[in-house]
Design brief:
Layout lengths: L5 E6 L11 E8 L2 H9 L8 E4 L5 E3 L3 E8 L4 E6 L3 E7 L4 H10 L24 E2 L2 E2 L4 E8 L6 E5 H4 L7 H4 L2 H4 L2 E11 L9 H10 L6 H15 L8 E4 L5 E2 L1 H10 L5 E3 L5 E3 L1 H7 L6 E2 L2 E3 L6 E4 L5 H19 L8 E3 L12
Parallel strand pairs: 2-5, 3-5, 4-20
Antiparallel strand pairs: 1-2, 6-7, 7-12, 8-9, 10-11, 10-12, 13-19, 14-16, 15-16, 17-18, 18-19
This protein binds NADP nicotinamide-adenine-dinucleotide phosphate.
Amino acid sequence: MLPDFVSPQADLAPYNTLALPARAGFLARIHSVEQLATLMRHPEFAGRPRFVLGGGSNLILAGDFPGFVLNMRIPGKRWLGEDADCVYLAAAAGESWSDFVDWTLASGWPGLENLVGIPGTAGAAPIQNIGAYGAEISEFLHRIVALDMARDGKTRAFTARDCAFDYRDSIFKREGWHLSGRYVITEVVFRLPKAWRARAAYGEIGAELARRGIQNPAPAELAQIVTALRAQKLPDPRALPNAGSFFQNPKVPARFAAALQSAHPSLPCYPQPDGSVKLAAAWLIEQTGWKGRNLGAVGMHEQQALVLVNRGGASYHDVLNLSRAVREAVFARFGVSLIPEPVTLAAPSRAVVAPEK
Ligand code: NAP
């Protein structure tokens, strides 16, 4: 008999913010570390494919998944302690990231204000090193606690260095551990410096501060500005299903960027510490005319060209067709290959990879 927190043949449509239709062979709603251990001992679990699901906000469902989907719902956020420099705070994997940030700010522990409002769970946040408006969670990460589901079921702690963070990347993503269910993140510990400094260099934040006549913003003011900027551009998935940024912002060699910029003087270019140059994918898409255009039941959003939206009843094939059309248009015009950002969950025979790399 299956444990009572596991449902067979479960509908996954409510579990992905793009609202694509699919079923899971088994859906396990995980509310505690003990439930993970119970699952590991269960004969149905052994040898079946598995996938760890947080908020489903960065996910494309390519069809039915015959194995176990582990929906991480472990709740809890707590103050762990402090030293002379920092305060240490823990978020259990199932906490909403956005609620966690709100709680830190309301409790008087600033630092995460530029990351307010990002959808998804705290447990999923380090996997792609979520970042926004000039901050990334890797800067604040102290420790990740994860369960080794593929071997001995023991917990392991990862330091920030172990995670080998990069732009929207970590060892969890690079090694595919989030897809294979190798390590299941159960808790994330943050370290917020007591010496707070405002991060206001990001163009849109600076402009909004100037417009409001604020010179030395407080954390709550920055959080308010970020929330307002997000609301202006990013559609709420509850009203218009989407998976956030659908393409990564491409990094290209500096010489290539310089040549592109001389042909397109208004192209936004952001030099990176590694010598490459980051381009704004939304700008490239807008230039091809895809901003606000639909194909089938999906479209690129009218306010933010980087967001692919489900206009109602979309299928995986609709998503694939539009993704291809946009990528081809950008490549034809600029010679730049866009790479989708969300993870694609496909049946194991078709491998679980990011689409069309
Ligand atoms: P945006 O502000 O239109 O910026 C587009 C691109 O330009 C991004 O690659 C951004 O880099 C870069 N950029 C803009 N100003 C910059 C500056 N002063 N210095 C360096 N790079 C700069 O982006 P958006 O789509 O509206 O999104 C707003 C923020 O939310 C961005 O930071 C974006 O990365 C973030 N976001 C993150 C996720 C995620 O973590 N999965 C999803 C959606 C949006 P950065 O990406 O480095 O900021």
